[in-house]
Specification:
577 residues, alpha/beta, Nucleotidyltransferase, domain 5, DHBP synthase, eight-stranded mixed β-sheet, five-stranded mixed β-sheet, 19 helices, binds fe (ii) ion
């Protein structure tokens, strides 16, 4: 079988299966552990995904010819040690699943790849360009030991002796020319125990965001919330003092990482202090990224394409500033730049290096970001079974679900929209979405209080047809922003249409939708335009705060039962309360 498998055993654990049997580009499925375990950002070996993989790719564990790759980046542990920690659990689980062969194959066929190289290969899989600069920036990558183990994957003059297990990948820059990646530069961060005694942090762009998320929300995964909070703050210092300011803030309370929330459970004035930290940090982040990108352009004046990946590529405010600055002609962010994409990077590394495929640029309009389990496609067709599950509710068949959905949205209703395979990564792209009219007064508050149960300072995103985005947002005409990775300013005259999705700083995180990438969702937005006059829809992920995006029909039922949502579209079925 022409299959390669990649595994991410860090946070946001996942298994990616790339199958080249009937598809030259590879039929790709990314099984995210959290979608099955319901533990958000779940780490360690993603055992929970295995039954699904077994059901969908029946022979995946059976032959010894598979190409397995795995990524590990923990202090002091190599890949094997990391698996050993879990060995008891996972061996038992595999036995009960009759998948014992898997551990044998895995142990004999592992290739260790550094975290940043996986990010880079994940970006390479989706790269629409023959040539580009790829910037990988995140909280923390692999340590020096993992890097040294896989050193022959890199072409670099750097002396590996200089890096140790106390040094971590911070920013890695690659030159992509067709299917090959050449490391241009790698910045190493040093483990700073005073910043974080039990989770590794270093002097890096992403690490500071991680530290701020922990400091403010007692959750180091909440960098996105810090970005949203920044609109409410003021920059607290001159540019040359930014670094010192942030360090001194984080040092003020040595126990900040032990779960004490600065914001939300504290007196009100802490909101201001939290927002000021967030604003100062965002300013620091933007300044650093802009100067990095300018330097890269100066070093590679003939290259017009820039790809940003790693968790820092989720900073949609900075991404939009970079687009507006026009330093590079094109900026592309892949659909899974954060750690959900690590397993894909590992699998694609094996595919290319194992001769299973060849690189070819992947035009954005052809890309498929809906990489969740494939079994849902047949489950959505089984109407009798769905009716059985939803027997407490009214269920009706809709030959064209977009018509009824658009009518409800334009009447000011919120709908749950569950179609096809799920999106890879943490945001909705129109297959697992809650949708509403972005001009409907009070919608955001209702969503916050009764459906999503989340903080009221956080903004919502908006989907818009690709060809119309520039009429509502300050973005270049026909610029592709299909993955909610950019937050341009809302055009002043159009603000009244976007009251529920315009943030305090007048930005809005947008998704440009094309008929090539998601025909059904595109048709829905066109129907909304037909009724309201504008191809705009508020789009937020179909989940409750703190829980993963819905994966299965069972999940949809549990959500519908426990929430105040009144309308649910499951494929061609409309379910109402
Ligand atoms: Fe990462």
């Amino acid at each position: 079988m022409k299959i390669s498998v990649g595994v991410n055993v860090g946070h946001d654990a996942s298994i990616a299966v790339l199958n080249y049997e009937n598809d030259a580009r590879g039929n790709l499925v990314v099984y995210e552990a959290e979608r099955f375990s319901k533990i958000k950002h779940q780490e360690y070996f993603p055992i929970q995904a295995i039954p699904q993989i077994m059901a969908e790719v029946k022979d995946v564990w059976k032959t010894p010819s598979h190409n397995f790759a795995i990524c590990c980046n923990e202090i002091g542990t190599t890949v094997k040690e990391r698996l050993f920690i879990q060995k008891k659990d996972y061996t038992q689980a595999l036995k009960s699943l009759r998948a014992e062969n898997f551990s044998k194959i895995l142990n004999n066929n592992i290739t260790d790849i550094s975290h940043h190289l996986c990010h880079a290969y994940s970006a390479l899989y989706f790269s629409p360009y023959e040539e580009a600069i790829i910037v990988v920036a995140d909280g923390v990558g692999s340590n020096g030991d993992v890097y040294k183990e896989s050193l022959n994957d890199y072409s670099t003059d750097e002396q590996p002796e200089k890096v140790t297990k106390k040094n971590f990948e911070s920013i890695s820059i690659y030159h992509q020319k067709n299917g090959s990646l050449t490391l241009i530069e790698k910045t190493w961060g040093e483990y700073l125990p005073y910043l974080q005694p039990d989770i590794f942090l270093n002097h890096g762009l992403g690490s500071y965001y991680t530290a701020a998320a922990n400091y403010i929300f007692a959750n180091w995964h909440e960098a996105g919330k810090v970005m949203g909070l920044s609109a409410f703050g003021e920059n607290q210092c001159h540019d040359d003092k930014l670094f010192e300011y942030l360090e001194s803030e984080f040092k003020k309370e040595r126990n900040i990482y032990k779960g004490q929330k600065l914001f939300n459970e504290q007196p009100k004035n802490d909101f201001k202090r939290s927002a000021d930290i967030a604003k100062t940090l965002q300013h620091y982040f933007e300044k650093k990224m802009i100067s990095l990108v300018k330097k890269l352009k100066a070093d590679f004046p003939l290259i017009e394409n820039l790809i940003l990946t790693g968790g820092c590529a989720l900073n949609c405010l900075t991404n939009s500033i970079l687009v507006n600055n026009k330093i590079f002609k094109n900026i592309y962010i892949p659909p899974c730049p954060n750690d959900e994409g690590i397993s894909l990077g590992a699998a694609f590394y094996k595919s290319l290096n194992g001769g299973l495929t060849k690189f070819r640029p992947y035009p954005i309009q052809d890309q498929n970001p809906f990489l969740g389990s494939q079994r849902i496609l047949t489950e959505l067709e089984n109407h009798n079974k769905i009716k059985e599950i939803f027997n407490d509710y009214e269920v009706s068949y809709q030959a064209d679900p977009t018509q009824r959905a658009a009518e409800l949205i334009c009447d000011g209703e919120l709908i749950a929209w569950f179609q096809g395979r799920s999106e890879c990564g943490p945001r909705a792209l129109g297959n697992r979405s809650i949708l509403g009219l972005p001009s409907k007064q009070g919608l955001k508050n209702y969503l916050n209080q009764y459906i999503k149960c989340r903080e009221d300072f956080r903004p919502y995103g908006c989907s818009v047809t690709k060809e119309d985005a520039h009429r509502y947002f300050e973005s270049p005409k026909d610029y592709e922003m299909p993955y909610m990775s950019f937050a341009p300013k809302v055009i002043e005259q159009q603000k009244h249409l976007l009251t529920q999705v315009t943030h305090l700083d007048n930005t809005c995180r947008i998704q440009t939708v094309s008929k090539e990438q998601n025909l059904l969702y595109y048709q829905l937005i066109k129907k909304i335009e037909g009724i309201s006059g504008h191809p705009l829809v508020l789009n937020t992920s179909l989940n409750i705060m703190g829980q993963p995006i819905l994966e299965s029909i069972k999940d949809a039922h549990a959500f519908f039962q426990s929430s105040k949502m009144k309308h649910l579209f499951l494929g061609n079925l409309y379910i109402s309360k």
